[in-house]
Amino acid sequence: MPKGRGIRAAQAEATRAALVHAARRLFAENGFHATPTMDIVRKAGVTRGALQHYFARKEDLFQAVFEQTGRELVEESVRRVEIGGWDALLDGFRNYILTLKSFDDYRISFVDGPAVLGWAEWRRLQANYGLRLMEMGVEDGIAKGRIAKQPVRALAYLILSVVEEASLMVLNADDLGVDPEDVVIAMISMLSSIGGVPTD
Q1: 112, 3, 17: which is closest to 55 by C-alpha?
Q2: pTM of whole model > 0.70?
């Protein structure tokens, strides 16, 4: 690659990364709808033209932010599950749910995510980043005899749905009249008892 082109590519990537970083902080603090694009431009230190070049719509920028937060969360969790398997997955669920409200990005993932992306796309992206993690844990559980042999992907999808519902319950605990600790106890109890009917 010619040197000039390499420099331009690096500059382009840096500009895009600055926009995503700035938007992530502002979306987390203020929410998608309450964040003007000019605030993002100023925080990123770029021009409005740069924003429009990389992201034609504010929703496109939000999706880039959403995907970045999803990748980071899963990458960290995958490392733990690779070492600890099914037990590490359950421990990760427990810690995640109990500390969910302290996450800077919870508004992006669970409040604005479904509203901005639409439920179907939000669910697709959530599954895209979380499904492999669930499959790793289930495969380990089956291998160790903790889970009866059964279709891995189907069970992984169901576990993903349970964790997402528990997350939404904790985020809306006051309105639902539930204690987050009780949600975690119920979730872990349910997942710990997974056995199913053996397929052979």
Answers
A1: 17
A2: yes
Return the exposure string of 49-64: e unless at least 16 CB atoms fall within 10 Å of the residue's CB, then b: ebbeebbeebeebbbb
Structure tokens at 93: 């669920």
**Nearest Cα residue to 73 out of 40, 116, 110:** 110
User: Which of 12, 117, 142, 130 shows the shortest CA–CA distance to 58?
Assistant: 117
**Would the pLDDT of 151 be above 50?**
yes
Query: Tens digits of per-residue pLDDT, 12-63?
Result: 889 999 999 999 999 999 999 999 999 999 999 999 999 999 999 999 999 9
What lies within 8 Å, CB to CB, of 108 at 6+ separation is 24, 27, 28, 32, 62, 65, 66, 69
